[in-house]
Structure formats: C-alpha cells, structure tokens
Design a protein that fits this description.
The complex is a heterodimer of chains A (242) and B (312).
Chain A lengths: L1 H16 L4 H15 L7 H37 L1 H5 L6 H24 L2 H5 L6 H28 L2 H19 L7 H16 L8 H29 L4
Helix pairs in contact in A: 1-5, 2-3, 3-5, 3-7, 3-8, 3-9, 5-7, 5-10, 7-8, 7-9, 7-10, 9-10
Chain B lengths: L5 E12 L2 E7 L2 E3 L2 E6 L5 H8 L7 E6 L2 E2 L4 H6 L1 E4 L11 H11 L5 H11 L15 H12 L6 E5 L7 H18 L2 E5 L3 H7 L2 E6 L2 E7 H9 L2 E6 L2 H8 L5 E7 L2 E6 L2 H14 L4 E6 L4 H13 L3
Parallel strand pairs in B: 4-9, 4-10, 7-8, 8-9
Antiparallel strand pairs in B: 1-2, 1-3, 1-5, 5-6, 10-11, 12-14, 12-15, 13-14
The chains are: A mainly alpha (242), B alpha/beta (312).
Chain lengths: 242, 312
C-alpha cells in the first residue's frame, strides 16, 4: 500500500511538472547550446575542448533552471498552501518530500541529457564517445548539488521568488569566483572529471591525480546527502504547516 | 463526557506563533455527530484544526482524534478524516476530475475514476469536470474542496467555512448532504463557520472559542437551557405598553424588546402564567404568542463569546 501510494505521488508530481513550460525551456536551452557551439569538423582534441566548453554553459544554465523548478516545487507549494492540502491527506511526510525530489531530479536530468545529446550531431561525435559520459557525470553531480541546495533553502525561506534568488545568486557567484579550479564549483568539478578521463585516452597537458578525481566526485555527493538528510528530517519531523 | 463518545478532544492545548498566543489552554470536546465550532476572527479555530490534523505541533497539552495523538499518529488520523481548509489551494493546472482521481488514489479508493465522477456530481461540478482548476470560480473551487473532503468515505470530516462563496441553493444542498451522510453513514462533522443560522439547521453540538479558549460547549439543548432558562418570548399588539407594565412586577428579573418581541426573565415562571391573560385584558392588548425561548445559536453565541468582551 505504501509503495503504491508513493508511486501515485510520483505520478502526481510528474503531472504537475508537465505544467512547467518545458517546451519553451527546451527550445531556449537548445538555441543557447547551438549558439555556444564553435565550428564543427575540428581535430578531436579541439572537439573535446568544445565539449568541455559546452559543459560550462550547461553548468550555469542548470543553476537557474534547477533553482526555478525546485523552488517552485517546495517553496512555491508551501507558499501557496498546496503542501497543506497534500499533508491533510494520508501521505507520510517523507513520501511527499522524496516523491518531489526524485521526480524533479530525474525529469530535469532527462531534459539536460536530451539537450546535452545535441552535442553528438553538432560536433560529429559518436554516441559511444567516452568523453560524452565523463561530461554527463560532471553535469549530473552538479545538478544534484544545485537541487539539494535549493531544496534546503526552499524549506528555510518558504517563498518561491526569494528562494530562487537566495539559491541561484550565491551558486552563480560561487561559479564566477571559484571558476575552473575549485572543488566547490560545478565548473571546477566538471573540469577535473573531464580532464581525468581525457588523460587516460589522449595526451593531455592538464594532468589530474586520482585523489582529485575522487574528491571531485565525492564532494557533491556528500554535500547533497547532508543537505537532503537535514531537509528530510526537518520536513518530516519538525516543520509545521500553517 | 465519556471519552468513548468523543471523536476529537483537546486538554489544556497551548500553541503560540511568536508572541501571539493562538490557543491558550484549549479544552475542546467534539462528540460523534454534527458539531459546530464558532468564534470570532482570530479566535483560534483554524489553528485548532491544524493541530487536530497534525499540521501544527502544540507546545503543551493533549490533542487526540479517534483517541490517537494528533502529532504522533497524524497519518492514521488523516487516513480516516476528510478536510476542507478555509483557504484550500489546489494544483491549478489539473482538471477537477484529474485532481479528484489523484486524491482518491492517495486514499486508496478502489475505483478512483468512478469515485471522482460520483463526487463531482454530488457537488454539482459534473459540467466543469474537465476544466482546469485555475479557471474555476471561487464557489466552484469551494465545491471541489468539499468533494475532496468526502473522498474515501471518511469517518470524520472537518469543514472550515464550507459554504463560503457558495450560492444559496448550493448551501441548502450542502447542508442536506451533510445531514444525509451523518444519517446514512454515521459520518461525524466538525463545521467551523461564521454563519450561525446554517449551523443551527444541522448541528446538535456547539463549541464556542474565544481568544484561544473554549468559552462554552455542549449539546445545543443544554446550552439553550443554560442560557435561556426561565426566559420567555411574548408577542403582543403593543409591546412598549406591555413591557412597562411587567417591569413593575416583582416576579420579573429582566425584560427587553428585540424585533418587536418581548423577552422576559422570571424568577418563577409558573406564577406568571396566570398573570399574563389578566394583564393583556387589563391593557386591552392582543396576545399573539407566548412561548419559552429556546435560544438561537446566534443568541447563545452573543451571551458567551461577545458577552465577556463587553464586560457583562
């Protein structure tokens, strides 16, 4: 019964997500991605550099879109009173929290993967190109961090617009200040992961130690796990819905 | 009252929001049946409902529904309870039908589509079932709220301002539906509203809250007896003349005129029964009616919640 209810909640959340202007979002993302693409039919090493540049664009784009989607889902529904309505039904709080996160995260991931896959025809890459998957790993880890941060801020602030600003601006600022060299930024982590894999299949001027790679992967996972755990405990056992 | 007959109960409930004390030692008793919950704006009605559903955690005191602790066992309580909040918010991009199907799924209703269809018909939204909720009028949203509160045949239904924004015919239908559900399925209702004349038609229990405390509560007949003992309503052709005469009698404690009717409180009503015809004849008046005042909800409310504030 509980698993059935959880599945129904996922369906509910998914249908709610479909009301987000996904089509407009996809078109805008695609246009930006194409505009950011340099000339195709370049030597492989240059294509890889372009692939990494494309990641940089998506890292910034992820911040704003994921913040908008997650603040709408948590802070927006709290602000509008929809969560009060939902929590008046026989729904366990952890189920609602998890259903919201899982649905938004997987749908956003699918959308980004769809946009990212445009790189394949644009750069003339094979779908089995290993560096594509290295890029995807970096992007998904970054998406996880952004989603977790926005979820936590949503529960603290409970106002949609302020949550977007309070999440996106510091995250964007962090990317701008930290740039490509910090484990604290999506750009930095993506770079490390990308270059770590790149050096194993081609001669690379930027060598990345295994420890740095592990840190680049572990840091976003640990940060997200901590934030999500704190948010889940707060949502399930402490938060009052007025 | 025997706890076994209570659906909901609170003892010494305290709940504050910052420096504002919303509930100040609330002792609420809601028996099986149809209960009214009345009080002025900000008296604590919505906060009480929030506590009963486990949405708000009380600072101290006890709150139980079906004998279960409201904060710790809120899931079980919500499984057996339907609720219409004062400001219900529904996902605007769902159609009314789809929304109710989702809610029915959550309640584990076997045939959610059929259940949603039947409830839409009950609340008079069959023609608008496929419209998006954001396109509904305030009254239609309220009707939808009522439908979702009745999904899954709950044992207990909490309705906060259920008739707000609903047209007169819709209100009559709703009150009849509540009576019907109570009669046929034994559903208990807690109805919070400011429209006392509507409560009067269906409730058999009244709880009056003021400044976070229960001012009085009880079966409506008991409350009427308590506040209107020895009060009689007299209708005569010239009330002003009649009242001047009876005020001089030693048996009359208090007499006043409301809506051309004389309300009179006696020390010993039996003595007065024989005197009335004599006075009427002596003053050459016409006696239209003479009956015991049962007290309307409005009159009872005036004597409780409003009374203390005016220092009476």
């Amino acid at each position: 019964m509980a698993s059935n209810r959880f599945f129904k909640l996922i369906v509910w959340e998914f249908e709610e997500f479909l009301n987000f202007p996904i089509l407009e979002f996809l078109i805008a993302s695609t246009v930006f991605l194409v505009l950011f693409q340099p000339i195709t039919h370049l030597p492989f090493s240059t294509i890889w550099e372009n692939l990494n540049r494309s990641n940089s664009f998506l890292v910034i784009f992820i911040i704003f879109i994921a913040c908008a989607v997650f603040s709408r889902s948590y802070a927006g529904t709290l602000d509008r009173g929809e969560i009060k309505t939902l929590l008046s039904y026989p729904i366990k709080r952890w189920e609602l929290f998890s259903a919201k996160f899982i649905t938004q995260f997987f749908v956003l991931s699918a959308i980004y993967l769809a946009i990212f896959s445009l790189n394949i025809p644009l750069m003339g890459l094979s779908p089995f190109e290993p560096m594509l998957y290295a890029s995807i790993l970096g992007l998904l880890l970054h998406l996880l961090v952004v989603c977790s941060v926005t979820t936590t801020v949503s529960l603290l602030i409970k106002k949609e617009t302020i949550t977007v600003l309070a999440s996106a601006i510091p995250l964007f600022g962090l990317e701008t200040i930290g740039g490509n060299d910090s484990f604290f930024t999506g750009l930095g982590r993506s770079n490390v992961i990308f270059n770590f894999f790149k050096q194993s299949i081609a001669v690379s001027s930027e060598s990345v130690a295994f420890e740095d790679f592990v840190l680049a992967v572990a840091f976003p996972i640990v940060i997200s796990a901590v934030l999500l755990l704190v948010s889940l405990v707060y949502f399930s056992f402490i938060m009052e819905v007025d | 009252m025997n706890l076994g007959t209570l659906v909901a109960n609170t003892v010494g409930l305290v709940k504050s929001f910052g420096s504002t004390v919303a509930l100040d030692g609330l002792n609420l008793e809601i028996p099986k049946g149809i209960s009214g919950f009345v009080g002025s704006n900000g008296a604590g009605k919505t906060t009480t409902i929030g506590v009963l559903l486990g949405l708000l955690k009380p600072e101290c005191g006890e709150a139980t529904v079906f004998g279960l602790d409201c904060w710790r066992n809120s899931f079980e309580i919500r499984r057996r309870t339907g609720v219409l909040h004062e400001n219900n918010a529904f996902p605007g991009n769902f159609s009314g039908r789809r929304f109710l199907e989702h809610v029915a799924d959550i309640y584990g209703v076997t045939d959610s589509k059929q259940s949603a269809k039947a409830l839409l018909k009950t609340v008079g939204l069959s023609d608008s079932k496929d419209r998006l909720i954001k396109g509904y009028s305030a009254g239609m949203t309220r009707r939808l709220g009522l439908a979702q509160a009745l999904i899954g045949d709950p044992e207990f239904v909490i309705l906060d301002e259920p008739t707000a924004n609903i047209d007169p015919l819709g209100r009559i239908d709703l009150l009849n539906k509540i009576k019907e559900l109570h009669k046929e399925q034994g559903t208990s209702f807690l109805i919070s509203t400011h429209i006392l004349s509507e409560l009067e038609k269906i409730c058999d229990w009244l709880s009056i809250i003021d400044s976070g405390k229960i001012v009085d509560q009880g079966h409506i007949n008991d409350l009427a007896d308590k506040y209107f003992a020895n009060i009689y309503v007299i209708e005569v052709s010239k009330p002003a003349v009649f009242i001047e005469k009876i005020k001089t009698l030693s048996n009359v404690e208090q007499a006043w005129i409301e809506d051309e009717k004389i309300y009179c409180k006696f020390k010993n009503p039996n003595e007065f029964f024989t005197e009335i015809p004599k006075i009427v004849v002596a003053l050459n008046l016409e006696l239209k009616s003479f009956r015991k005042s049962l007290g309307t909800f409005e009159e009872i409310y005036k004597k409780t919640a409003v009374g203390p504030k005016n220092g009476k």
